[in-house]
Amino acid sequence: MRLGIQVDERFKGGVRESWLQWVVECALSQSAVDRDVEMGIFITDDETVRKLNRDYRGVDEPTDVLSFALTEERSDGESPPFVMPPDGLVRLGEVVVSYPRAAEQAQEKGHIIETEIALLVAHGTLHLLGYDHDRPERERQMRAIEERVLSRVEARGPETGSSDGV
């Protein structure tokens, strides 16, 4: 797996890159992904997420997580989907997480911020893999995978996350 991680400077102390990689590996493992993939994670602020949400989804408000999949069909019907190089690497796309929104949600739910960020990263990764929650049966499937990821994350904790033992 190739994972590009970008964390805004003011949030770097709150998120370890090796732990984020381990969360993504858990999500991929629980989704039975057995191909080499590439994706990115961006941990940023509410304003950046709001701008992305407005510019790409037409929703002018902040949200907790956005996923930009490279493998989805284009909704405008005019542009072809992104063409992948023939190197065997599946380029999934990008997951963007609002750190302040994750902190608020963690407090509301009564758990640590790392748990909330893990949930949001797993949720975004599943969207990149084609999972959705637009219908009840699809939502159940997606939530079940998220729960399996979270149980592994919570059992291991953010301090010990590593890329081995997924």
Oligomer state of the chains in this structure: single chain
Considering the protein shown, what is the CATH homologous superfamily? Metalloproteases ("zincins"), catalytic domain
Largest sheet features: 4 strands, mixed
CATH architecture: 3-Layer(aba) Sandwich
Whole-Å distance between the termini? 13 Å
Supply the helix-strand structural class: alpha/beta
Strand content: 15-25%
- The CATH class is Alpha Beta
Structure, described:
The protein is α/β, with parallel strands linked by helices. Helix 1 packs across helix 4 (113-128), helix 1 crosses helix 5 (136-156) and helix 4 (113-128) packs across helix 5. Helix 1 links the parallel strand 1 (2-7) and strand 2. The chain is globular. It has 5 helices and 4 strands. It has a 4-stranded mixed beta sheet, with helices on both faces. The chain has a single domain, classed as 3-Layer(aba) Sandwich (Collagenase (Catalytic Domain)), CATH 3.40.390.30.
Summary keywords:
alpha/beta, disordered C terminus, single chain, 45% helix, Collagenase (Catalytic Domain), 5 helices, 166 residues
Quick recap of the structure?
The chain has 166 residues and is an alpha/beta fold. The protein has one domain (2-75, 83-156): Collagenase (Catalytic Domain), CATH 3.40.390.
Layout of strands and helices, then pairs:
Elements: E1 2-7, H1 17-30, E2 37-44, H2 46-57, E3 65-69, E4 90-98, H3 99-109, H4 113-128, H5 136-156
Parallel strand pairs: 1-2, 2-4
Antiparallel strand pairs: 3-4
